[in-house]
Amino acid sequence: MKKVKIYITLKQGVLDPQGKAVQDSLNTLGYSEVLNARVGKYMELTLDDSVDVEKQVEDMCAKLLANPVIEDYQYTVEEGIAQ
Amino acid sequence: MKKVKIYITLKQGVLDPQGKAVQDSLNTLGYSEVLNARVGKYMELTLDDSVDVEKQVEDMCAKLLANPVIEDYQYTVEEGIAQ
Hints:
Two copies of one chain form a homodimer. Chain A has 83 residues and is α+β, with helices and mostly antiparallel strands. Helices cover 30% and strands 37% of the residues of chain A. Chain A has helices at residues 17-28, 53-65; strands at residues 2-10, 34-47, 71-78. The longest helix of chain A is centred in the C-terminal third of the chain and has 13 residues, at 53-65. Chains A, B: Belongs to the PurS family.
């Protein structure tokens, strides 16, 4: 089995109100050193060993997991996870 | 400036309906090799160089960013980001 970690972030230049809210909240709490915050999604998928994990994950991201118009995605594949 | 990447995940054993929905959707789309999916949050913070970034980030996670009852968090600090 393989474990895939997927990081989905908004593209640079896309407004991130959730990140702005996080930044404002942190500043209000006294963490004035926080200059910027961006919020994204993180997913962990467990995949059966299949023909081409990388191609499959690319497909999944483009079709369902990320919105390629406004989001970027990155992923890492870890081999041989015993679950 | 420092860039901090924070990964927040549900603790093992905590039900993840969002992850289940992602898994079911992927299976429905024909990706039957997806055995499990867990969804978490990903944040990127830009911090001014302050006294002790690690301690500050620990604090922020415990107080605002994560719910320590049901969530775990991890983070990495990247030095010297020119933004």
